[in-house]
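Posted in: Structural Biology > Protein-Ligand Complexes

Title: Requesting predicted complex, magnesium ion in pocket

I'd be grateful if someone could produce the 3D structure tokens for the following input. Sequence and ligand are given below.
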Amino acid sequence: MVEPADPDTLERAAALIRAGRLVAFPTETVYGLGADATSDVAVARIYEAKGRPRFNPLIAHVADVSAARRLAVFDARAEAVAARFWPGPLTLVLPRRADCPVSLLACAGLDTVAIRVPAHPIARALLRAAAVPVAAPSANPSGAVSPTTAAHVVQGLDGRVDMVIDGGACAVGLESTILDLSGADPVLLRPGGVTAEDLCAVIGPVAMPGADAHARPKSPGLLLRHYAPGIPVRLGATAVGPEEALLAFGADVPGGAVETLNLSPSGDLTEAAANLFRYLRALDRPGRSGIAVMPVPERGLGAAINDRLRRAATPP
Ligand code: TXA
Ligand code: MG
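-- Reply #1 --
Done. Output follows.
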């Protein structure tokens, strides 16, 4: 499973990515668990392999800034920091382009997308060969520390990943800095190798919500906005009310909805995760009384699906 980073390995790795499989690869920060970011099912496999209890959005990795511009809207600030710090340990959160090909599951349903152009030569070669944006969280099981060697990856994810490309130890060893440029003011969501001072020198003041040591959030996820539908969401539905749309699961679907989308008629949780955000958005249309959601079992990926459904059902 662990392969040396030669040209043959990179070709096979790129083919695995394009086929929707999982490949762990080195970046200069930490090892990433990569999959085709444009495929909902491939992205669902990442969450499954990590055993994440919730769908935190993932970083889309691309080979260069022109590939990045195909995913997101770049303003002058984004162009400036990209020109200065890419390739490198900086992730930018930017508005998704209307034609952004990145899976809504990878973006956890948000209107923004996190993008990084890594500097590691093996990561760059893989991204060029794969020719698709690669979604990649750190290649560790949820709750474990980020891996900085191929051996760490194997310790945590043995049997859950199709290939691990061995690139030796990561030079930075700390996750990338995350800068949110999707709003009026730049916000540092996660500190990293590129410092606030570095960023400030290029784009001026950067807000640091976690800068106060006592207020520092334990996880960048805590600073995250969540996708919430504009109409009420009702969980655990076994019947449909007047003017309700239905987000179904499984074979036994009640009738009477203005529109029904089934997360997985066969009850497959990976398929359900892959469809979740796309279907929620599709059903979220004005003029409907709400979205009724059938029960989803709590096992496996069901825990993350239910976590996100509960957030969607809670008014802000
Ligand atoms: O160095 C790194 O960034 C490594 C390597 C593999 O690139 N990746 C990494 O990914 O650390 P991950 O999934 O462990 O952390 C990504 C963080 C998430 O915790 C999430 O909060 C944030 O990026 N993120 C992703 N998309 C976002 C978005 N649209 N808005 C706000 N935050 C986002
Ligand atoms: Mg991580």
